[in-house]
Automatic annotation (TrEMBL):
Stretches assigned to the TACO1/YebC-like second and third domain: 79-235
Entry keyword set: Cytoplasm, DNA-binding, Transcription, Transcription regulation
Entry similarity comment: Belongs to the TACO1 family.
Record keyword Oxidoreductase present: no
Source organism of the structure: Dyella koreensis
Segments forming domain TACO1/YebC-like N-terminal: 7-72
Superkingdom, natural source: Bacteria
One Gene Ontology molecular-function label: DNA binding
Pfam families on file: TACO1_YebC_N, Transcrip_reg
Subcellular location: Cytoplasm
InterPro entries named among the record's database cross-references: Integrase-like_N, TACO1_YebC-like_2nd/3rd_dom, TACO1_YebC_N, Transcrip_reg_TACO1-like, Transcrip_reg_TACO1-like_dom3, YebC-like
Protein name (record): Probable transcriptional regulatory protein ISS97_06995
């Protein structure tokens, strides 16, 4: 008689998932430190990253090491890099990285793109299709009263727009207003599923059925690269289109 996964197997899978989450959080902290100062009290982006890491039960020692790496205090000279390119079906990609070895990073990114139906573009080849903005996503489940609550709080806080779709309310604001909008929404009792300053596509492009799997594989492989901190794209994936 067959048995389900062992307790040890499930634990290993959970540990692997947790490690991946921690890797992303550490990147976020190092990038935020690099972009500003090493003091969370004086760096809103870093404070938000640290809060997220603490919520995920990351230890303070691990957080401090990430801040040291970002500030260069550990002897490492790291920098933010941005690559632009295309995925299957001509989907536009912006790939943000944080690295201490530009040669390695561009080689890794190019290899993943070339092996998975994409290619590296030149600077500003796709950036014009995106706008840098603050984005906070709330799971409202299509509940009109919840959507109204998010809308009222967001507009009161100085947000530019609120988009309700796919059971989510997405608050859009100027990058410089992100911290104040986020704090106002928290004070209103609203907690985002995802929040950050990101490159948001001006328009989303539907992905043909034959390219969906290839695009998702490419996005997963880029996301798995150690030096990649965020991948933005303009694809409208089937799950979103059906939402």
């Amino acid at each position: 008689m067959g048995r389900g996964p062992s307790i040890e197997g499930r634990k290993n899978a959970e540990d692997a998932k947790r490690a991946k989450v921690f890797t992303k959080l550490i990147r976020e902290i190092t990038v935020a430190t690099r972009a500003g100062v090493a003091d969370p009290a004086a760096n809103p982006r870093l404070r938000a990253a640290v809060d997220k890491a603490l919520s995920a039960n990351m230890t303070k020692d691990t957080i401090e090491r990430a801040i040291k790496r970002g500030s260069g205090a550990d002897g490492g000279a790291a920098e933010e890099l941005r690559y632009e390119g295309y995925g299957p079906g001509g989907i536009a990609l912006i790939i943000d990285c944080f690295t201490d070895n530009q040669t390695r990073t561009v080689a890794d990114v190019r290899a993943v793109l070339n092996k998975n139906g994409g290619n590296l573009g030149t600077t500003n080849s796709v950036a014009f299709q995106f706008t840098r903005c603050g984005e906070l996503v709330f799971a409202t489940g299509g509940d009109e009263s919840q959507e109204e609550k998010v809308l009222e709080a967001a507009l009161e806080a100085g947000a530019d727009d609120v988009i309700n779709e796919h059971g989510e309310s997405t608050v859009i604001c100027a990058p410089e207003n992100f911290e104040s909008v986020q704090q106002a929404l928290i004070q209103a009792g609203l907690h985002a599923e995802h929040a950050g300053v990101t490159m948001r596509p001006n328009n989303r492009v539907a992905v043909s059925p034959e390219n969906v799997e290839a695009l998702q594989t490419l996005l997963d492989k880029l996301d798995a690269l150690d030096d990649v901190s965020e991948v933005s794209h303009n694809a409208l994936l089937p799950a979103e289109a059906a939402g």
